[in-house]
C-alpha cells in the first residue's frame, strides 16, 4: 500500500526501507527504472515467508481499513499463519471478525543484566562444556530435533542452517553450552547464547525428552547467567512459547519477566 511521498528523498534499497517501515513507521522508496525520481510513502505492507505472514501499517494511516485489506490479501495464501506483534485488542477483534483462531503465543521475556560475580552451577552427574565446531554439529542437530519436535521453526534446523548461524558475526562457541551425561558422555541438552552489543539473548535452550526431569534447564540457564556476568551487558532477553510453562518458571527464577506477547492466528 503506497501513497504520495511529497518532497521526501527517493531511492535506496527497498528491503532496508520496508524493514524501517516496521521499525520507524514510515519510509520512502524510489520508483522503478521507468520512473526515475518518483517517490512514494509506504502506508503499510505485508510480508509472507514460509507459511507465516506479518504486516505493518504507518501509525498516521491506521483505522482506515488498510490492515484488514492486507490481511484479506494474505489470507488468499493456503494455510497461512498471521503474526500480530503485541497481544492487542484491535488485532484480536479483527482476527475474530475474519474467522481466525489464536494458535500460538510467543512471549518476549527480559531481565536486567546480572551484576557482580556469579558462579556457574554444578551437577556431579552432568558435565557442561562448550560447543566445538567441526565435532559437535551432528550430535547437536539430533538432540535439537528431538527437543523441538513440535516447534515450527527450531525443530526443522538442518546442517546448512546450523552452519549459517555458526558463520554469523555474533556466534561464539564459548557461549554455546552442551550438557552431557558424566558417565556415558551422551549429549542431553544445550543452551545457546547470543550477544549483540549490550544485549544478551538466551537464543535456544533444548533438552532431550529422554533427559527431562534431571534439572538440565535450570543448570544450563545458570551457566548462561554466569556467562552474562561481566560481559558489559545492559539487558537480557529471550523468546519462549507461551504454553511452555516449565521454561517460563525456570526463567522467572533467574529474574526474567514477561515484556510482550506476540500472537499467531490461522483459519479455523
Report on this structure.
Its EC number is 2.3.1.189. Pfam families: Acetyltransf_1. This is Mycothiol synthase. The chain is α+β, with helices and mostly antiparallel strands and 268 residues long. It folds into two domains: 2-79, no CATH class; 114-233, Aminopeptidase (3-Layer(aba) Sandwich), CATH 3.40.630. Helix content is 26%, strand content 33%. The protein is built from seven helices and 13 strands. The protein has helices at residues 14-24, 66-74, 89-97, 137-147, 159-166, 216-228, 245-253, and strands at residues 2-4, 28-30, 39-42, 44-49, 52-57, 81-85, 100-112, 126-130, 176-181, 187-196, 199-207, 235-241, 257-267. The strands form two sheets. The protein has a ten-stranded mixed sheet with strand order 4-5-6-13-7-12-11-10-9-8, with helices on both faces. Strands 1-3-2 form a three-stranded antiparallel sheet, covered by helices on one side. It is elongated and about 60 Å long. Mean pLDDT is 83; it is low at 1-34.
